[in-house]
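Subgroup meeting minutes
Present: P.N., E.W., G.H.
Scribe: E.W.

1. P.N. recapped why we're keeping a running log of single-chain structure predictions: easier to compare across weeks, and new members can see raw inputs and outputs side by side.
2. G.H. added today's entry (198 aa).
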Amino acid sequence: LFKILELKNFYKIIYNDVLLSIFKIIFPELKNIYRLKNYTLIKNFLKKNEMLLLSILLMDETNDYEYFFHKYKISNKIKDNLIILNKGFKDFKSNKDFFKKDIKNNLYKYNLNNIEILYVLNILDKKKITKLDLNYLKELPRISIPKFPYDGKFLINRGLKEGKNLGVILREVEKHWLGNDFYITNKELETIVNKYAK
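Output recorded in log:
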């Protein structure tokens, strides 16, 4: 399957009724192949990769992608990535601000490669792709995301002992930091640390 997806002109299969019929018989779970009709509009904006094309063909709001895991012997890396992408797909379908005011949080949460794939799925599902859509795709890599400023070492230096509690505290601090537009005051940090450092 990946050898087929790597073919330079694979996306043109949508215009060949015979090849398309054969492909659908062999790979019935890749039912979103219709998305390839608009693929030519976005293909020059992204580096082609197996996750991009696989997501275009496979990803939707169902959990049908799980059947794909069972039918094909895919690597754990691809499996984990598809699970993340499916969660992101459902997120953006239910959140109208996913690619707008929540974009920085989502870039932090899902990473740039996955957000680019999710945005491609978003625009390929539209009836018409606009110049604005394509410009936004081009701008995505330029959005700067702050790095989470705390780690286990930081907490240990503050007198906390190593252990699973550190992970709990870091997750709570990160959650607050993300929810507050990548910012947390020293007082808020102290409150979280004191609450969970028992």
